[in-house]
Each structure stands twice: as C-alpha cells, then as structure tokens.
Amino acid sequence: MYEKDKMTSNERMEAFASGREFDRTPAMPFLDSVTCKFAGMTHREKEHF
User: Fold this and answer.
1) pTM for this one?
2) b/e map of 14-48 (b: 16 or more CB within 10 Å)?
3) Domains of the chain: which residue ranges?
C-alpha cells in the first residue's frame, strides 16, 4: 500500500462500484482484457476497433 493511501484497494474498489468517494483513482490494468473477452473479441481485435 502506498504510504499516502487512506483506503485499501478493496475498500477503494467497493467505494468506486457503489458511487461513494474514494481516496484516489482505482488502478484496473486488466479491465481492458476482461471487457474484450466478454464482448467476444480478442485483445488484438479490440486494438483495431
């Protein structure tokens, strides 16, 4: 955890998902790949979309 964080990553994501305030923007590095999978696209197909 970063020393200036006031929330854990789980607390931050719960706040983000429920529309409450959070201490900083949540990092979601794999979200792009997951959304491609649910859309039935490969990552390469998404890059050319």
Assistant:
1) 0.53
2) eeeeeeeebeeeeeeeeeeeeebeeeeeeeeeeee
3) 9-47
Query: What does the DSSP assignment read for 1-49?
Result: --TT-SS-HHHHHHHHHHT---SSPPP-TTHHHHHHHHTT--HHHHHT-
Give residue 39's identity as a one-letter amino acid code: A
**pLDDT per residue as tens digits for the range 33-48:** 677 777 788 767 767 6
In one-letter notation, the amino acid at residue 25 is: T
The C-alpha atoms of residue 14 and residue 19 are separated, in whole angstroms, by 9
Scan for tokens 């607390």, then name that residue. Answer: 11
- Could you tell me which residues come within 8 angstroms of residue 27 by beta carbon, excluding any fewer than 6 positions away? 9
